[in-house]
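Reply to thread "Modeling small-molecule complexes from scratch"

Following up on the discussion above, here's a worked example others can learn from. I took a protein sequence and the SMILES for thiamine diphosphate and predicted the complex. Inputs first:
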Amino acid sequence: MELKMIKNIEPREFEKYELNRDRLLRLYRKMLEIRRFEEKVEELFLVKGILSGPSHLYLGQEAIAVGVLSALKDEALMVTTYRCHGHALAKGIDMNLLMAELFGKSTGTCKGLGGSMHASIYPEKGSIYATAIVGSGIPIAVGLAYSLKHQGKDNLVVCFFGDGAVNTGAFHEGLNLAALWKVPLLLVCENNLYAMGTKVERALSSKSIADRAASYNIESFVVDGNDILSVYIATKKAEKLIKEGITPVFLECRTYRMKGHGVYDKAEYRPKGEVEEWLKRDPLILFEEKLISLNYINKDELKRMDEEVKREVEGSVIFAMNSPILDFEELKNHVYG
Ligand SMILES: Cc1ncc(C[n+]2csc(CCOP(=O)(O)OP(=O)(O)O)c2C)c(N)n1
Ligand SMILES: [Mg+2]
């Protein structure tokens, strides 16, 4: 199957997708919420020492979660990974509940029992699962998508995973079955160039990740993952293909992890020049420049929005700190098996 590219979109192609000023500003705000939330989480771990344990930040990848999830309908079902805070916010999960989960409080998305790596699990918003076992979300998403098809439901599943996941057995089994069973599944690989400290090309034998997916006879696209409009348009095109053919579609979104693998990782294994080059392509700055060039917002308005978002994030910390932990007696009600 031929590989397609959704890079370098026409400057005003986005207008065909009902992306007017209001909508674009809402997308920007959501990206900003993720950015400020993650920066606050990093501070709570590294500066204040209030939070501890594993946590994997989404800094630098905001355009993917927001681009994909805002292009899909709210009822789309989602499966993601441990790097899930951005997906949670982009799926419309309340920031207070997300922060409370990181604090292990009963008001959290998983009643404080899941922690950072599972904080996006919230079926009420269609967020079905988040797993820390690399690649393991893919077969789960195939099963969910198969159940939608079996029930004749007009819906789809979106599954997010990293470049490291494409070298797991679960990826191969999952894609093979997804293609054979023709399930309504959007596979989104966030290729941030690293799986922990391993550079993508050190672990990948295929020409590219999208090429590997295409070898399973799945329509596959390479997308500029730092450009929200490209991600949004790619998702709209994918959604149409999925709907028309009841078939899986694969997006390889190329991006960069701004920080280390986990919050404690200083990522000293990365060449300085590489980091500097990618930071110039910060997805928020790219989008800001676009919005300013369209005359949709100015620097003062951007500053005001930023202040509002920072207050919202502070509010979520206060909410989390003031929340109780789960009552011990209630614990047994949330253990299955
Ligand atoms: C099956 C399995 N193997 C190894 C690990 C250890 N591990 C945790 S995260 C990670 C890297 C995954 O990288 P990638 O899929 O690129 O996602 P990213 O962290 O970049 O978002 C590894 C190897 C694991 N959790 N599960
Ligand atoms: Mg990666």
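What I'd highlight from this example: The CA atoms of residues 41 and 47 lie 10 Å apart. The domain at 4-73+160-319 is CATH 3.40.50.970 (Rossmann fold). Questions welcome below.
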